[in-house]
Amino acid sequence: MTIKIGDKLPEGTLAEFIEVESEGCSLGPNTFKVSELTKGKTIAVFGLPGAFTPTCSAKHVPGYVQHAAELKAKGVDEIWCISVNDAFVMGAWGREQKSTGIVRMMADGNADFSKALGLDADFSKFNMGTRSQRYSMLVVDGTVKQLNIEAAGKFEVSNAETLLAQLA
Fold first, then answer.
1. Who has greater pLDDT, 159 or 20?
2. Residues 6 or more apart in contact with residue 69 via CB below 8 angstroms
3. Percent of the chain, pLDDT > 70?
4. pLDDT at residue 24 above 70?
5. Architecture of domain 13-166
6. DSSP string computed for the chain
7. pLDDT one-digit tens code per residue, 83-140
8. How far apart are CA 66 and CA 103, in angstroms?
9. Is the sign of the CA dihedral 75, 1, 15, 57 positive or negative?
10. How far apart, in Å, are the Cα atoms of 14 and each of 72, 91, 161?
11. pLDDT (tens digit, 9 = 90+) per residue, 39-50?
């Protein structure tokens, strides 16, 4: 079953590569409970098939980096990019995309969270296994308030501009 507007996010964990050690976060991969991270926050979440892939690298992540200040001005506390990659890859991709400190690059290594959302996709024909569909959502205190799921092979509704317009 696919998540829909009005649903609470499912229980799950995501991993993030932490560049700078701080209280409660050690250097390297750290695992976080989604329910704890979303509590009392407004989060712009976008999911995509994979780090370092063409559309994801050329359009999807750069759009959220470019529009981050506007999203935050409209009440977004954090921006997350979720992909079925490991935290090391997501950390390296975040550095390459210059998104560190702007977009949290969240790893869903085994696609467990994507599957729980009902937004997993079979990319076996591309030798990529199970991945995430391309989507965006606005999450307020763990509840989905906006949801934009792309048709296969498309990049039309999960961009930062669409989510920004929905916040107006």
1. 159
2. none
3. 95
4. no
5. 3-Layer(aba) Sandwich (3.40)
6. ----TTPBPPS-EEEEEESS-BTTB-SEEEEEEHHHHHTT-EEEEEEES-TT-HHIIIIIHHHHHHTHHHHHHTT--EEEEEESS-HHHHHHHHHHTT-TTTSEEEE-TTSHHHHHHT-EEE-GGGT--EEEPPEEEEEETTEEEEEEEPPTT--SSSSHHHHHHHT-
7. 999 999 999 999 999 999 999 999 999 999 999 999 999 988 888 888 899 999 999 9
8. 10
9. negative
10. 22, 13, 25
11. 999 999 999 998
The structure tokens listed for 65 are: 């980096």
Q: Which amino acid is at 64?
A: Y
**Residue 25 bridge partners (DSSP):** 22
Structure-block tokens of residue 55: 């559309």
Q: Given the residues 37, 43, 56, 144, select the one marked as catalytic.
A: 56
Paired tokens of 45: 């979440």
Whether 31 and 147 have beta carbons less than 8 Å apart is answered as no
- Are 136 and 162 in contact, with CB atoms under 8 Å apart? yes
> Cα(50)–Cα(59) distance, rounded to whole angstroms?
13
Catalytic residue flag (residue 56): yes
